[in-house]
Amino acid sequence: MRALARLRPDNFTLALLATVLLASVLPARGALAGALDGLTDVAIAVLFFLHGARLPRQAVVAGLLHWRLHLVILACTFVLYPLLGLAAGPLARLALTPELALGLLFLCALPSTVQSSIAFTSLAGGNVAAAVCSASLSSLLGVFLTPWLMTVLAGSSGAMADPLGAVAKIMLLLLAPFVAGHLLRPLIGARVDALKPLLRYTDQATILLVVYAAFGAAVVEGLWSQTPLPALLLTAAACALLLAIAMPLVWLIARRSGFDRADQIAILFCGTKKSLATGVPIAKVLFAGGPLGAIVLPVMLYHQLQLMVCAVVAARLGKNNSAG
């Protein structure tokens, strides 16, 4: 029963599903859609400002000292996953719609998630400090690496009219607020830390807002009428297969690289997670004017799968640590 309880979608995932349903039934149209698009930009900037303000300076310093571990995690995130996506590309293009196949590539190019990587590392008894540093560094580098990887992986089919312009806009929308928040941490850090439980809902609300806008626009353009059910099921299967291949590979890499168990656990959870919180805003910029709803659908599916699977794996690793 406990194992089944862990597999139950969490409240945020249920809210995400409800948001997709709402966007499918009542999408924003016309002037309201334009206003919503501007509101999502503001919400994303505020979100990354708060992320910057939350990152302690000590974490940055500690991260620089454990460079070998971070290189392994970054290689798993930005080399191993794109290679898996590239290998699956021909089959994905045959089985899925072009938008879903592109979304699968985009998923493979995304940085690691921060909050859940740290939470699962802690639950499993891993190196939490290393997870904080690596996940934060991954998110930061994703601003530059994800657009570049999409240009390499998807080429002219990536629906990116101006990749360099997209990187500049991502820097303005994500990186600049992040850096500003971190620089202001000495002044506002204590207040932000005190509000951390409340600010978690800021993250979630921003994602829900962007997902509603993206899916609403996609529904207006005919997302569900143009995406057959078999393609959706195959996308979910592809995400499950990707996770099933990547997790054992990353664990093997961590063990063969000579790290201790705590570092191996940090590598496993930071190296196999993909960020919905960072991915949706990046997609909003990279694929502006494109089929955004279909492109982020694989990211949403993978997000839920990684939470369910990693919850079980983390609990088992934590239990083994306690027994040892």
Description:
The structure is a single chain. With 324 residues, this protein is mainly α. It has one domain (30-319): Na+/H+ antiporter like fold, CATH 1.20.1530.20. Helices cover 85% and strands 0% of the residues. The protein is built from 16 helices and no strands. Helix 5 runs antiparallel to helix 13 (229-256). The longest helix is centred in the last third of the chain and has 32 residues, at 292-323. The protein starts with a helix and ends with a helix. The model has no long low-confidence stretch (mean pLDDT 81).
Helix proportion: over 70%
State the shape: globular
The tally of strands reads 0
Q: Can you give the mean pLDDT?
A: 81
Q: Would you tell me the structural class of the helices and strands?
A: mainly alpha
Number of domains: 1
CATH architecture: Up-down Bundle
What is the level 1 CATH name? Mainly Alpha
Output the helix-strand order: HHHHHHHHHHHHHHHH
Distance between the termini: 25 Å
CATH topology grouping: Na+/H+ antiporter like fold
Number of helices: 16
Radius of gyration: 19 Å
Q: What share of the residues does DSSP label as strand, in percent?
A: under 5%
Largest sheet: none
Low-pLDDT segments, ≥5 res: none
